[in-house]
Amino acid sequence: MSESIGNWVKRDPNIVPETITWSSEKRVYEWKSSYTKDSAPSDPALEKELFSSESRINSGIHFKSYAEMSVSVKDGPPGLTPIVSFDDAGLDSVVLENVKRMEFPEPTPIQRNALPILMQNYDLMACAQTGSGKTAAFLVPTISKLVSKIFKGQLATIRRRPGQAAWKATPLVLIILPTRELAIQIFEEARRFTYMTPLRPVVIYGGAESRVQKEQIQKGCDILVATPGRLKDMVERGIVSLARVRVAILDEADRMLDMGFEPQIRQIMMSSDLARDEGRQTLMFSATFPRDIQTLAREFLKEDFCRLRVGRIGGTTSLIKQNIIHVEDYEKKETIFNTLLDYPPSRTLIFVETKRTADALDDFLYNKKFPTCSIHGDRDQRERELALRAFKEGKSPILIATAVASRGLDIKDVMHVINYDLSNDIDEYVHRIGRTARAGNPGTATSFYNSNNIPLAPTLTKLLLECKQEVPDFLQSYISPNVTFETDDFYDEEAEPAGYGANAGTGDDPGSTWGNQADSGWGSNQTQGPANDGW
Ligand SMILES: Nc1ncnc2c1ncn2[C@@H]1O[C@H](COP(=O)(O)OP(=O)(O)OP(=O)(O)O)[C@@H](O)[C@H]1O
């Protein structure tokens, strides 16, 4: 009997090694105090690991289409001129060199506009489509500004002296994210842009050994990438002080501030420990921004914060071919089996609603000889890291996931996203399908729709029309005769309340995943904060 099915190749059996190197232990450029900007040596092995084209997404054939998106900037610097090339952005030459190593052909619209805004120290709330380069939009200017100051002797990085007992790390940049996987990914990106600079990035997240993360922090921590629970823990244990933070960044800010995380974020952002002088910059980025969350977010920003929007808030990219097919629950297994065989084997991400379904579907497909693995919040962190690595490395090119993987993950060559269970939250749908078609590459999203998804039908139909996608027969009745594709802007207090999509993701919707709490990274030793709902 064949070990594989269709054209799929059998799963690599070596996905579970004896020991695991935590992602937080990955090597960063080690700057020595004797180095200067001109004398710092390169590290060829690290450079290869960080910048080789296998390790990152190459921009795709549709990259130029980003330029067609409408851009709106409110309350930004007077006379703002978007950059045309990274060379115009006034970046420190070492950071610019790292951008060049990434082989970005040109800045994306969010980068064109965010770079000059952030170089001028504005607080910012920014929204742009999935996969359009928001991470570099906040990391590059932030790292460049600090590196320039350090090279000019205007700012110091503080390190623990050998044998020094009472020492707290004092990061200059704090980046908070809703999930462990996302924190690891942003750390990876920070490793790239800080290459050959004195800034040392560190990542901390729940589920992995605190001791290992503490050791990394104690080697020096200038950029701290963290999930909220582990951050609070490290601050409370006196390992980290936020007193020197110059730039605080909330990525996936809407998720961070939704019902599950608001208290923790409020506690961190409002804590007396966090530097609150006028010099601190606060940035929020996401592809979606429900209006009630925008209102909340304002509390953390300076009064004159800038709003930057590319395309419609909550919109998606037309680079994704969206198929919606009618599948009753009892037909789903047969349909997924056939769907996987209908497409050429390629990296495929399958979203399900519950951990139970994730396990059951993984067993079903694995027994049918498909090369699957799965990730959800009941898996321990070791299993989660191994599953994601096996998927990224192609050892297990079909990954079954709960919403823990819906946001932000940037994985090369994900050609197909399948919503085995559709979420009834349009923002969640946008984030999930956004795992494909990144950086101008094409991709397909197939969603199994049935009567359980009626609450999603109106917004989904409108999204399909907006992206010029085929509307299936069973959704035709949801096409409004007066449909308009208004560009939803950031909420303006004086403007009309709630329009299209305004309620998306508020948790009001009974089927919404927003009522759940994402995997905060609250370690198992946490006694405070949201119970991990098991994402
Ligand atoms: N200017 C650029 N040119 C080419 N590729 C780019 C550019 N900027 C970023 N990228 C690449 O595009 C991919 C997507 O970027 P990123 O992960 O920042 O997207 P995002 O907007 O944060 O998406 P999401 O909302 O899903 O988190 C990354 O692999 C990144 O390296």
From TrEMBL:
Region annotation (Disordered) maps to: 495-535
The top EC class, named as a word, is hydrolase
Q: Where is the composition biased (Polar residues)?
A: 513-535
Annotated DEAD-box RNA helicase Q domain ranges read: 84-112
What GO MF terms are annotated? ATP binding; hydrolase activity; RNA binding; RNA helicase activity; translation initiation factor activity
- SUPFAM superfamilies, per the entry: P-loop containing nucleoside triphosphate hydrolases
Catalytic reactions of this protein: ATP + H2O = ADP + phosphate + H(+)
Which branch of life, at top level? Eukaryota
Q: What is its EC number?
A: 3.6.4.13
Statement: the UniProt record of this protein carries the keyword Oxidoreductase: no
Q: Which residues form the Helicase ATP-binding domain?
A: 115-307
Checking PANTHER family in the record gives: ATP-DEPENDENT RNA HELICASE DBP3
What does the function comment of this entry state? ATP-binding RNA helicase involved in translation initiation. Remodels RNA in response to ADP and ATP concentrations by facilitating disruption, but also formation of RNA duplexes.
| Family membership | Belongs to the DEAD box helicase family. DDX3/DED1 subfamily.
* The protein's name: ATP-dependent RNA helicase DED1
- Please report the organism this UniProt entry assigns to the protein: Linnemannia hyalina
Q: What is the lineage of its organism?
A: Eukaryota, Fungi, Fungi incertae sedis, Mucoromycota, Mortierellomycotina
